[in-house]
Amino acid sequence: MIRILIVDDQDLVRHGLKRIFEDTQGINVVAEQTNGTDALHWLSHNDCDVVLLDISMPGQSGIEVLKQVHEEKPQLPILILSNHTEDQYAVRLIKSGAAGYLSKGCATAIMIEAVRTAASGKKYISPTVLEMLVSEISKPEGKLPHEMLSDREFEIFRLLCAGKGVNDIAAQLFISNKTVSTHKANLMEKMNLKSLADLVRYCVTHGLTD
Fold it and tell me: Which domains does the chain have, with CATH numbers?
């Protein structure tokens, strides 16, 4: 029996996933958590075979939870759930230790296949992500500016691209306005961007908008 922990702040998503697995032989949802902090606490006292982890949650983001779990339980497979398209986060997260990257709107059969693949100790790589990984390996040494950002900087960069202001980002990530402003200043400097307009143009040029 494959034991699953679902971590997502949206009730509809958790309940929908639970219904899928209730009707699937050999898979059992053993726990649900609505945020990263509670998920980490649960994992420190309990075991499971696969974690389904939302990337965008209040407080500790899925990116941060992935890194911490990967450090503490490196053998535990973590499948990332996201509303973002694969080209925006998949390669970065798989390189950080994720066992796979799934769209929340993917077919039930793909979700089940990904869970079973991860539980067997393999990574679930969709054809689209595989193509991106091959491209990543074969491209020249130089990285694009946004690929040089830390995970938190990249997360804030994506929210800025989506038109979010500093106050909105701070509220969504449960961090202070000052922290957001500091990350914003650092990422703008790293990317050699002078204004928010420059950042938006960069996002459009590189296909990083939703």
Answer: 2-137 (3.40.50.2300), 145-205 (1.10.10.10)
